[in-house]
Specification:
With 132 residues, this protein is of the alpha+beta class. The chain has a single domain (23-130), classed as Rossmann fold. Helix content is 42%, strand content 17%. It has helices at residues 22-37, 39-56, 76-83, 96-108; strands at residues 3-5, 11-13, 64-68, 88-93, 126-130. The strands form two sheets. A three-stranded mixed beta sheet has the order 3-4-5, covered by helices on one side. Strands 1-2 form a two-stranded antiparallel ribbon. The radius of gyration is 16 Å and the shape is globular.
């Protein structure tokens, strides 16, 4: 784990410096309906980025993948199809409205399974577990 020095010269884990900015999270929460409404256009726009992530990450059948800041579910939804029934895809996001949009997309695609894995202590993100 990385450490940083505070002004009082105490070491603090870097994760403590990564506390969410509530204004930014609020903006993402408010924009969730628009991301959901335009999901397919967004998926197509980001398809080259998703493909690059899959290639660079060597993601394939049976793999486990964590999508941090999953938003309304991309690239997690596309990757869930690649890892198949043997794999697992988890998406987390600090905006619960985004996670709910992703959950609705998985229900539409019949890929939904509720997560039973708790997030680490202190993690404020909302979990999403996708399977085939």
């Amino acid at each position: 784990m990385g450490f940083v020095r505070c002004p009082n010269n105490h070491q603090v884990g870097i994760l403590l410096w990564m506390l969410p900015d509530q204004e930014v999270i609020s903006a993402w929460r408010d924009s969730a309906p628009f991301w959901e409404k335009h999901r397919e256009i967004i998926r197509q726009m980001f398809a080259p980025v998703t493909q690059a992530l899959v290639e660079d990450g060597l993601i394939g059948s049976g793999h486990a993948v964590l999508d941090i800041a999953t938003g309304p579910g991309e690239p997690a939804l596309t990757i869930a199809a690649l890892v198949g029934a043997e794999g697992k895809v988890f998406g987390i996001d600090p905006a619960p409205e985004m996670v709910e949009a992703a959950r609705r997309a998985t229900i539409l695609g019949s890929k939904m399974q509720n997560s039973t894995s708790p997030l680490p202590t202190g993690c404020r993100s909302q979990p999403l577990h996708l399977t085939q």
